[in-house]
Write a structure and sequence with these properties.
Layout: H1 10-23, H2 29-49, E1 51-56, H3 61-66, E2 70-72, H4 74-83, E3 88-92, H5 95-104, E4 109-112, H6 117-120, H7 126-150
Parallel strand pairs: 1-2, 1-3, 3-4
Helix pairs in contact: 1-2, 2-7, 4-5
Length: about 160
């Protein structure tokens, strides 16, 4: 699957300006031009698909503050996952947490970022860390979810 990143348009700049004000000490402006369109697109898709993003405390600021609906440690996230009413839950954290979320909320479609996140943790650019989450969200929202809705509605995870 080839993914084309969304562009940093004046509209994206405007929609993400308040968020960047909170993150400007953590993300350089040059990286924000790459990160903001991704955040903006994920936020749009979350609303469109009734999705919830859970993020562990160690996520980078762009995910923690820019994308996550609920943040916390593993226990807090597990508790919130059990109460969640979303159709889709995206887990930004280690893979076993996505499995825990699915056990606690079996009706939700649970997505997780790729296991390459552990390799990406060594990179210095937040954009490179963010890409597996963005890819998981795009894959899940645009491919997996649409095929599930089109079929029997059963979740395979």
């Amino acid at each position: 699957m080839t993914t084309t990143l969304p562009a940093f348009t004046p509209e994206v700049r405007q929609r993400t300006a308040a968020l960047y004000a909170k993150l400007k000490n953590h993300i350089p402006e040059v990286e924000w031009a790459l990160t903001a369109p991704i955040i903006d697109e994920i936020r749009r898709l979350k609303t469109q698909k009734n999705a919830l993003v859970l993020a562990h405390n160690y996520m980078t600021p762009d995910i923690f503050h820019g994308v996550a609906d609920i943040v916390g440690d593993s226990l807090a996230l597990a508790r919130e996952a059990a109460r969640a009413k979303a159709d889709i839950i995206v887990m930004c954290g280690v893979h076993f947490m996505a499995e825990t979320v699915k056990i606690l909320n079996p009706e939700a479609k649970v997505l997780k970022s790729s296991l390459t996140v552990f390799v990406i943790l060594s990179k210095t650019s937040t954009v490179w860390f963010f890409m597996p989450v963005y890819s998981a969200v795009l894959k899940g929202f645009l491919t997996v979810i649409d095929s599930i809705i089109a079929s029997s509605g059963k979740s395979s995870e």
